[in-house]
Amino acid sequence: MRKEVPMFITILAALMIVFGKYFFLGDQVKVLNNMDKYFNISGTFALLIGLISLTMVHGMNIRRRKEGWYNSVVLLVVMYGYLLLGLIEGNKGTTFRWIYNNAFLNLDATMFSLLAFYIASAAYRAFRIRSWEATVLLIAAFWVMLGNIPFGEALGPWVVDGKDWIMRIPNTAAMRAIQIGAYVGAFAVAMRIILGIERAHMGGRS
Amino acid sequence: MNPIFYLAAAAAKKPEPALGLFVEKNVGAFFLMLFMTAVVWVMITRARGAKKIPAIRKIAGLDAIDEAIGRATEMGRPVHFSPGLGGVDYPETFAFFATLGHVAKLAARYDTRLINTHRNNYVYAIADEIIRQAYLEAGRPDAYNPDDVRYLSPYQFAYASGVLGIFQREKVAANIMIGYFYAEALIFAEAGYQAGAIQVAGTTSTAQLPFFVTACDYTLIGEEIYAGSAYLSKDPVLTGSVVGQDVAKIAIFALILLGTIVANFNNFGAKTNFLKDLLLK
Asked: Residue A147 domain-assigned?
């Protein structure tokens, strides 16, 4: 029963979505919207599991006085404090928004800005000329970068035209090839799940 | 007449079924889906009947997973596995689930610590169950540590900073990333590279693939991640579905070729592109 019931629900939900998507049922949009609602409701329960997991992991850190345990104290205080504030003020409350805008967003932007440095170090490794493929990559990347800056434009229209050609033809062709393959692959996965061949997501082997 | 009346009239117009049965503009897609279903079904049936089906090619990235875990075992350091940002509505996440069972079982067998981090609550709950089951199947239920399956944060960069912290503190020897990734892909891959971890990554996100190719030792490109369950388990029925997927891909390629010919030869004198009309009906 542990496998059969989730299997049955999976197949039923899949068929409802397929029918709602392709067949004219008159009110098919409502069917799909309702499915989205069920998904969101079940997600709220799953969020609680995440909250419990964080509490357990960091509670254990504090209890065992693991290295850096005081960070776990900060995490739990902030997590439950912010949750409490949200419950009291609502997500549009002045203090709630102030903390979000002045603490969270800045921390988020700091992590995002790390990408600039990581791109530089990754690009350095990628562009080192070790093979003819790396040489092609270097030339193409150099041309695209040149075509995106005012200096490249000043050199002549051929720089921008060349950049556009690289982005529009070989780049798009490669991306679409990967995407088509991925969509077909995703379809095969969906088939395997509906047919009950792939059951890894039910906590067991395929 | 005020244009607003035209808009109101258009909004009030009830949608009509195409061919009396289908949602408009979905007929072509439905028959394409039916065709692909038939192809995959035939291959699965052939595999179930122990009939001969073509073998799937060697995928270096999937072979490298065993090597990565082996290396972590030799070094006595943990393995980190991330599914990226995708939720359970992403097919890439199911590729992650399929690979996770194999990785967890190997980790249990070799007594290597597996740290699995998450930003999605659904995926976290399922992954926890998969790992628990894998340790049980490997005969090591005592080695399963629920603290190593971690829900870090639902926010992208908060999750990324949590993973970076784990790389630094826990000194991971292997980093496996299979799923759907966004901007955090390069943050993980570069941080893993700098930590000296052997890295195996796979995604279908074309925007993040170049970063993985650059920073990781092995990359699974696009649909290769979906072959994971068949390739690693060597189950003939699962392999049949992967072969079916390849046949469907060839058929789609033929359709693209036909579409290109039709478009370039001026639709053979027809006023409209019949192939496009047929597919978009």
From this structure: yes
